[in-house]
Predict the structure of Phosphonate ABC transporter substrate-binding protein.
Amino acid sequence: MLKKVLFAIMVSFVMLVLVACGNNAEESSSEAEEPSETGGESSEAEEENESIDTLSVGFVPSRDPDEIITATEPLKELLKKEMASLGYDIGEVDITVGTNYEAVGEALSAGTTDIGLIPGGTYVLYDDGAEVILTATRAGLSIDSDDAKDWNDNKPTEASDEQATSYRALIIAGPSEKGQELAEKVNNGEELPFEDVNSASWAVMSSSSPAGYIYPALWLDENYGKTITDLDNVVQSDSYGSAFARLAQGQIDVMVTYADARRDNEDKWQEEFDGEGSIWDDTNVIGVTPGIYNDTVSVSKNSEIMDDDLKSAIQQAFINIGETEEGKEVISIYNHEGYQKAESSDYDNERKAQEMVKSFN
């Protein structure tokens, strides 16, 4: 009897051990199936980057097109690198320079260019097909006056340490006899009558260029009740460089341009444009426009690849590029020093300017 009791106790003990082992095995199996906070086979897999064959970038010809193409070549790899970190693998970055400002706006509207670095005036002209995502910041200048004589008394114009979100357009008289005549009156504190202004030959940019057309047209309207189409002798230049070359050689008397353009063309004035003296000695400001909101980075609303996620990535990529030394060197071709997020409403004043120009014509 005692042996039977002992045998029963031993059987019971073995059963308990087996049950315990089974429970431990189940718990271990259960723990293995639970997702690990640090990864493992059951953790959420890292999402792969989206692939884009070609991302096209268009620049306006505010400088010599070959110069722009050369200077922006490093942007291709910079943009690929930044976009990869933001979820997009770009096969090729295609950079082109439009034949004029309108060509880039039209390409954005048509969806044949994905990204355009264009002035505010060009953007508002084509905002049915283009969307602004960034505005450029630039270094300010040592002179920021409404008075043309101040620019002449304090030249040369230098860069300042202050960042600016707007810039001036200047009406500049060259070394021709008529140009010097107009400059002398301004520097003597005399008012320029429209007859004097109209007797000069002018060079302007395309009609969507803020500094090269729109704001100088407003200057003429504010001072004389006239516009560029009222001038008797006007030629349209394909770039500021070609306008400076004409000015240096006396082929035109007056040109319109952005405020730091003489700094950009200081060396070329004598070396390439055959100016007799320095650009500061040979030229004078005869008119100053109000501030113009800076250039945009805009994207196409009609590009086949463009969506909100891609827009956000492009926006952040350009901001990141503008914060690196290599990136700053690339974007300096347009005198950009960085970028900040922009809204369409930032350019409402440009829209008003465009409407005024249209009413003049």
Observations:
- Residues 148-292 form a domain with the D-Maltodextrin-Binding Protein; domain 2 fold (CATH 3.40.190.10).
- The chain has two domains: 50-140+294-360, 148-292.
- The first strand starts at residue 50 and ends at 59.
